[in-house]
Design a protein that fits this description.
- The chain has a six-stranded parallel beta sheet, sandwiched between helices.
- Helix content is 40%, strand content 15%.
- The longest helix is centred in the middle third of the chain and has 25 residues.
- It has seven helices and six strands, in the order E-H-E-H-E-H-E-H-E-H-H-E-H.
- Strand 1, helix 1 and strand 2 form a beta-alpha-beta unit.
- With 253 residues, the chain is of the alpha/beta class.
Length: 253
């Protein structure tokens, strides 16, 4: 079989990093898209390779259409095509609505919402038949916690874009989904907590998300990424759980 290829934006940390590693375990070649932390991105490359996959790291601002096009070009040049796009890049500055600087708001919208739109545009044009596009939302769109207005607004937009794109791609044999994870502790955060307690300081509050058993009130759609060779495909969101879902752990998307 032809090697399956995935692009993971925001792949240097958090959910993106864990998604990339899991894809490596499933034998994917993975292109790690990152915004600025090259050292962390290269660490993810090593994790993917240790898991059994191939990987490269490519720097790209997800809101820059030229940079994103170059990211997809590199994936095609290195690995021959693209089958899966996991769009996990995002930022989360927090402040009450009345206090949030509008320049910060614009930056959140640019990265989280425009970035998703730009990446999805390239994905629609390049993902091969039988492939998948996955956008990451958040349970915070429904939890309505103070301080999260800008972040939740962009994630609500991500969900709207995903639903419409799924309908636009009906008949293309490309699955389009979004997942809205809830907070849960990871193995990394647990280790950090133990280290903190051993030195007499309180544990850090680092959270992540689990794609296989979400702790949020709802997950808007299921993960569509399936093992190579699966014949179950749909161009619209589905409530059915795939046979081998990604298990994602990291910071909130």
């Amino acid at each position: 079989m032809t090697e399956r290829v995935a692009i993971v934006t925001g792949g240097s940390s958090g959910i993106g990093r864990e998604a990339a590693t899991r894809l490596g375990q499933d034998g994917y070649a993975v292109v790690i898209g990152y915004g600025g932390n090259q050292v962390a991105a290269e660490e993810t490359v090593k994790e993917v390779e240790q898991a059994g996959g191939r990987a490269i790291a490519v720097r790209a601002d997800v809101a820059d259409e030229t940079a994103v096009a170059a990211l997809f070009d590199r994936a095609e040049q290195e690995f021959g095509g693209i089958d899966v796009v996991v769009n996990a890049a995002g930022i989360m500055p927090l402040a009450p609505l009345a206090d949030l600087d509008l320049d910060v708001f614009d930056r959140v919208v640019r990265t989280n919402l425009r970035g998703t739109f730009v990446v999805d545009q390239q994905a629609v044009r390049r993902v091969r038949g039988g492939g998948a596009i996955v956008n990451v939302s958040s349970s915070l769109t429904k939890l309505a916690r103070p301080g999260y207005s800008a972040y939740s607004a962009t994630k609500g937009g991500v969900e709207a874009v995903t639903l419409i794109l799924a309908r636009e791609l009906r008949g293309r044999d490309i699955t389009v989904n979004t997942v809205a994870p809830g907070p849960t502790a990871t193995a990394r955060s647990s280790r950090a907590s133990r280290r903190s307690w051993s030195t007499g300081s309180p544990p850090s509050r680092r959270w992540s998300a689990s794609g296989s058993r979400p702790t949020s009130p709802r997950s808007s759609h299921s993960w569509p990424v399936r093992p190579a060779g699966s014949t179950v495909r749909s161009s619209t969101p589905t409530a059915a759980r795939p046979p081998d879902p990604l298990v994602l752990k990291g910071k909130p998307p």
